[in-house]
Amino acid sequence: MTTFLWLISFVLHGVSLFLIILLSLKWAKIKETEREQAELIREMETMMTTYLMQFKEENERFVKQMTSSAVRQKKKEASPPFRDEQVRLPVEDVVDRVELSTTSLKEEASLKSLVSEALKLQQQGKTIDEIAKVLNRGKTEIELLLKFHQK
């Protein structure tokens, strides 16, 4: 009878040892998954920070451009005398005129060459980061440029 009890005890100890090993393996997998998730969160935070900084820089450039064009517009308006018959344009028309005056043929040509150069580098297998470095542009700008001009 004692032999039977010893045998049951060894079997139960073996099963419990097997379950403990399984639990420790599962726990190690969970810890690895947590570590990977923390790394992904750090990457996403870095990417969002970079995106927001580029967005802020583009907004600052836009504000500078708009203020400089507004100053030029005021200088143009101040130099010729106003006529009483002149009708004030709505804000939408003024914005359209500013946009038209800021895009010249040279800028359009440089934009087309930039697009073609970016597409050519992408076809060569370059990453977006490498293309941005080669063209001296922001990563987000190149990414959007390629998205808009994909066939």
TrEMBL record:
Keyword Transmembrane: yes
Transmembrane segments: 6-25
Keywords: Membrane, Transmembrane, Transmembrane helix
Origin: domain of life: Bacteria
Protein name (record): Coupling factor for flagellin transcription and translation
Organism, scientific name: Anoxybacillus thermarum
